[in-house]
Design brief:
Radius of gyration: 30 Å
Distance between the termini: 107 Å
Helix content: 55-70%
Number of helices: 3
Strand content: 5-15%
Transmembrane segments: 12-30
Oligomer: single chain
Keywords: Membrane, Transmembrane, Transmembrane helix
Length: 94
């Protein structure tokens, strides 16, 4: 058999190699599942955020400024802000 042709150290080396391969596969599987869960969670959060923003926009607030920070960065959303052009502010009447 295989164990008869291997020395005692060879058997230990083979067992450690198989254990290392199994540990690598387990680690890869866990990493993959973790990444999938994070992407699903981010998708759910994005859907909830957009639903909330649509609800705020539909409530007819005059001015609304939303600042949010997450792992993607910092965003500022302004709804209902009417800005007057700079040329209209400084027009001289004739």
């Amino acid at each position: 058999m295989l164990t008869e042709s291997l020395s005692e150290y060879g058997v230990v080396a083979l067992a450690l190699g198989l254990a290392g391969a199994a540990a690598g596969l387990a680690r890869t599987f866990i990493t993959h599942r973790t990444r999938l869960r994070e992407e699903q969670e981010a998708s759910v959060r994005t859907t909830a955020r957009m639903t909330g923003l649509i609800g705020l926009a539909a409530a007819h607030h005059k001015d609304l400024r939303i600042m949010e920070r997450d792992r993607d960065g910092h965003r500022v959303v302004e709804l209902g802000r009417s800005r007057v052009p700079a040329t209209a502010e400084h027009k001289e009447t004739a």
